[in-house]
Amino acid sequence: MEQNRPQWGSRAGFIMAAVGSAVGLGNIWRFPAVAYENGGGAFFLPYLFALLTAGIPLLIMEFTMGHKYRGSAPLTMTRINRKSEWLGWWQLAISFFIATYYSVIIAWATSYSFFSFTKSWGNAPQDFLLGEYLQVGEPGQLGGFAGGVLLPLLLVWIVTLGIMFSGVKKGIEAATKFMLPLLVILFFIVVVRALTLPGAVEGLNAFFQPDWSKILDGKVWIAAYGQIFFSLSVGFAIMITYSSYLPKKADITNNAFITAFANSSFELLAGFGVFAALGFMAQQQGVAVEEVVSSGIILAFAVFPQIINEFPVASGFFGFLFFISLTLAGLTSLISIIETFVAGLQEKFNISRTVSVAVGGGLSALISLLYATKGGLFFLDTVDHFINLYGIVFAGFVEVILVAWVFKELDSLKQHADAVSDIKLGAWWKFCLMILTPIVLAYMMFDNIRQDLSTPYEDYPLSFLITYGWGTAALAIIIGVVFMFIKPLSRNSKEGL
Fold first, then answer.
1. Residue 210 near residue 202, CB atoms below 8 Å
2. Residue 170 carries which DSSP code?
3. What is the DSSP letter of 289?
4. Which of 163, 370, 424, 496 has the maximum number of C-beta atoms within 10 A of its C-beta?
């Protein structure tokens, strides 16, 4: 019943949980690399524009949907229109697939936290990562478990599911209130230390030096929208689920602004730390900063250990702080991701939270073992690429089109948000969601498909990409449709309105 629906204990608890879901592992290395590759300091103009015209409007929309219709993504979509339940399940399937591999990256960070003390990676961190630690084999081949990954992965799941079993207030909110401030404090210490290293200024100059010639390049603006879309956790049910736990009088619009700007502030902090450290590394090697810049997993688990090796004092301690920060960032996001399908299963089948966590979280943990094998890196890289580009982006596009154009819900959502918020929504909000955001997302989809059809992703075998890349993205949609027809929602779809 509605009166038994869990609620956040405080507004701060909700904001911390929402920010924690956005401030994930990817923010620490993705944003600095994207900004550097797209004009440095000049990138902040399209980034801010994208935040105001897509990020915040989408956050407000999803916050309002969850708050008004008081349900997980499938139940919320059903209460908007019974024919749209499949979209909610599609978004939950996306979250499920992300949880299966995201947990493994957290396990890597956990291992590296302790590797830092002895610098187990030696003088060739990338060789250690791919050879000794991950024991990378061939694409499509399992090759047995990588023992160093399996044990920390089990630990990650024990901690995560333990928090999930405790519920929203006593589990998720309590854990986030502890982990998010600790994450910020620890990462701030790492950033301050990086800023004091020789060469840090050159690294920051490379990061912030504006290249105004790129400001008129459409790809730079698309990159800004892509960064905002991925970093705010919109499009795959997290924010809808979390906002459904808000009290009825919660200030939706203000919460969305705080969440968005807090996330962007952390991304900027990450940029300071990453490029200060890269500037130091470049000076140590006697090369230009651009020669040591990389992105993705390699930056965190290959480049940063090399930087830690060259720290003049207390290198092991600061290495531990960096990687434990990655672990905490990952855990806060993983918890929010799992909550989406835990809540969905609980409402769909009218089961207890304990059963829902055991089934949804347990199955996710079981599948995650695939990525702990010696071929796991290839599975992870492929699934991540396709589920992000053809899951999150596509689902977000469909969500905006359905809500704004097909079901014409924006006026109703605006009225609901204005009734409980100090900041009133103007015409800009509807324009962004009805015109600007759909156009940008549609172009992103078109460009991504064009690139992946013209050149196989990472030159992986085509059969491998079809099975684990395109196949996973398609399977998420199929799951969405199948779950809609398995059984009617166990609760009255009008309940809570």
1. no
2. I
3. G
4. 163
The number of angstroms, rounded, from the C-alpha of 174 to the middle of its chain's C-alpha atoms is: 20
Please tell me the distance from the alpha carbon of residue 148 to that of residue 114, in angstroms, as a whole number. Answer: 12
Amino acid at residue number 159: V
Position 430: which residue type? K
What is the rounded CA–CA span in Å between residue 134 and residue 199?
32
Task: For residue 496, give every residue at least 6 positions away whose Cβ sits within 8 Å of its Cβ, in sequence order, or none.
Answer: 2, 5, 69, 70, 71, 79
What secondary structure does DSSP assign to 367-403, as a single string?
HHGGGGBTTHHHHHHHHHHHHIIIIIHHHHHHHHHII
Distance between CA atoms of residues 39 and 223, nearest Å: 11
Residue 295: predicted pLDDT: 65
Place of tokens 């390049």: 217
pTM over 0.70: yes
CA distance 276 to 304: 12
Q: What is the mean pLDDT of each run of 10 residues along the chain (497 residues)?
A: 75 93 81 90 95 96 97 96 96 98 97 96 93 94 94 98 95 94 92 93 95 91 90 94 95 97 94 92 91 76 88 89 94 96 95 96 98 96 93 95 98 98 96 96 92 93 96 97 80 45
Per DSSP, what are the bridge partners of residue 373? 145
Coil, helix or strand for 305?
helix
What is the Cα–Cα distance from 262 to 276, expressed in whole angstroms? 21
Q: Classify 145 as helix, strand or coil.
A: strand
Identify which of 378, 273, 376, 375 has the alpha carbon closest to the alpha carbon of residue 329: 273
**Total residue count of the chain as it appears in this document:** 497
pLDDT score of 489: 52
pLDDT of residue 108: 97
Supply 29's token pair.
């290395």
User: In angstroms, how far is the first alpha carbon of the chain from the final one?
Assistant: 12
Task: Give residues with Cβ within 8 angstroms of 43, minimum separation 6.
Answer: 34, 35, 214, 220, 223, 224
Tokens of 406: 């097909």
Residue 172 half-sphere exposure toward CB, CA atoms < 13 A: 33
The number of CA neighbours under 13 Å toward the Cβ of 297 is 19
C-alpha–C-alpha distance, residues 211 and 234, integer Å: 29
Q: What is the CA radius of gyration of the chain?
A: 22
